Amino acid sequence: MVFLISGLLITAGMLALNKLIAPNKPNPEKLASYECGEEPTGSSWVQLNSRFYVIALVFLLFDVEMVFIFPWATVFGSHELMAEDSRWGWLSLTEMFVFMGILILGLVYVWVKGDLQWIKDKVIQPSVPVNIPGSVYDKINEIKYAVKPFSAEKTTENIPVKEASATAAVRKPMFKPNLKNQ
After folding, report:
1. CATH number of the domain encompassing residue 81
2. Pairwise pLDDT comparison (52 vs 19), residue with the higher score
3. Is there a domain that residue 91 lies in?
4. Residue-wise pLDDT tens digits, 104-142
5. Is there a contact between 68 and 52 (Cβ–Cβ < 8 Å)?
6. Residue 51 three-state SS
7. At 83, is the secondary structure helix, strand, or coil?
8. For residue 11, is it within any domain?
9. Burial of 81: CB neighbours in 10 Å, binned 0-12, 13-18, 19+
10. What is the CA radius of gyration of the chain?
11. Model confidence, pTM
12. Do residues 39 and 180 lie in contact, with contact meaning Cβ atoms separated by under 8 Å?
């Protein structure tokens, strides 16, 4: 109870001291999102790829594992405890084998499921039970969403000759970084 109360008091005291001492001078530059020196564009409400989440959870699983291995190593390495009763050594060794076995089974499960692969080998196509043949969807996609081949050079195939000569003279870069002077 003493640790709990002292922890809460110290935390509240540090937060109050920070509020009292720290300068509070907000400006638009400080309130803007930070994106590696670039101006943020678009909405920050974008969908996060679930692979980031899965990799983070797997990392946490094996990171937290170390928190439990250190106390075990302390008990297992204690000569005084082992000299008092030799069963402590076998008990702690068995417990660690069970713990590591559960973690290894979790790793094998994640590995077999394919969640450790950043780029999936096999694309899973969703299937919906409908009576419309897939060729109908393919025809609609070909008409509506025709993909044009990419070329780094400026082409003037679909531009009238009058506009083609005007656009060929003015060539703008494809990407212009928007950096601020610090």
Report:
1. 1.20.58
2. 19
3. yes
4. 898 898 888 877 777 666 767 777 777 888 788 788 877
5. no
6. helix
7. helix
8. yes
9. middle
10. 31
11. 0.40
12. yes
